[in-house]
Amino acid sequence: MNETNILVNTIIEALQEKKGKKIITMDLSKLEGAICKYFVIAQGNTPTQVSALSDSVWDLVYERLHEKPLGAIGMKEAQWIAMDYGTIILHIFIPHLREYYNLENLWADADVTEIHDII
Questions:
Q1: Is-contact 80 97, C-beta < 8 A?
Q2: How far apart are CA 84 and CA 69, in angstroms?
Q3: What is the pLDDT of residues 78-104, one digit of tens each?
Q4: From CA 73, how far away is CA 78, in angstroms rounded?
């Protein structure tokens, strides 16, 4: 398993630990002009949960892989947090903003993998 896949799987695990919902990965590596190799998209029900999800990712990725995001925005409002890990950009939304921005449709040519919710 390569470093990018290990990072994707670690991000997914961290999101699932805090009950992140509707997690998907989008493989952008074959798309010309893509800004990274993968998007990981998830949602939390409230800004508090969105914040907890981003904290979980930050902590687990650093603990296991000793990596911090190159940048992170939206932490204060916690309605849409984007974390840039270079090859992977993580987006964590509250539901109505995820629906509004519809990143899945903007990058519709990407290979999408849905991760089953943990109940």
A1: yes
A2: 5
A3: 999 999 999 999 999 999 999 999 998
A4: 9
Strands (E), the chain: 21-27, 38-43, 71-73, 80-84, 88-93, 111-114
Q: For residue 39, what pLDDT band results from cuts at 50, 70 and 90?
A: very high
Predicted TM-score (pTM) of the model is: 0.95
Angle between the N-to-C axes of helices 47-65 and 3-17, in degrees from 0 to 180, rounded to the nearest 10? 140
The DSSP letter of residue 117 is P
Burial of 31 (0-12, 13-18, 19+ CB in 10 A): middle
User: What is the DSSP-derived secondary structure letter of residue 30?
Assistant: T
The tokens 């109505």 sit on which residue?
Answer: 96
